Protein: Response regulator
Amino acid sequence: MAHRSNLTPTILIVDDSPNNLSLISDALRNQYHIKIANGGATAIELAVSNQPDIILLDIAMSGMDGFEICRRLKSEEKTRRIPIILLAEKYSVQDEELGLSLGAVDFMRKPINIILLIARIKNHVAFKIWADYLQQKIHALERQLLFDQRKS
Structure:
């Protein structure tokens, strides 16, 4: 989870449509910290520097599309474990398969059903919190094992 003084999850919303950014962020703003990116380079920069708890990523954007953004985020150590929910107005089964194979955790059709989106966000953030916790425990055990091996 990103380092903050409280436990409110941060969502990075990535879409090149100002209307979509506004609609989604307005619907989620009361429950989450919201970061917004209107293109691929900005999205990657924000994700690396701020490490949100989850990313909502439109696949149909000019310039760098959502698939390429997802591919790049999943190839970076700092952003690899951030859950990504792909969003699309029109998509095929092949698009969904591609997105999931690139590392996205979910796919939602636009217009977004906010109640379903919030439920999915809560589930994926909860999974991420547990995964982060377990990763910390694994690292602690590995450090202890190395320490014990050096002592003996």
About this structure: Strands lie at 10-14, 33-37, 54-58, 84-88, 106-109. The first strand starts at residue 10 and ends at 14.
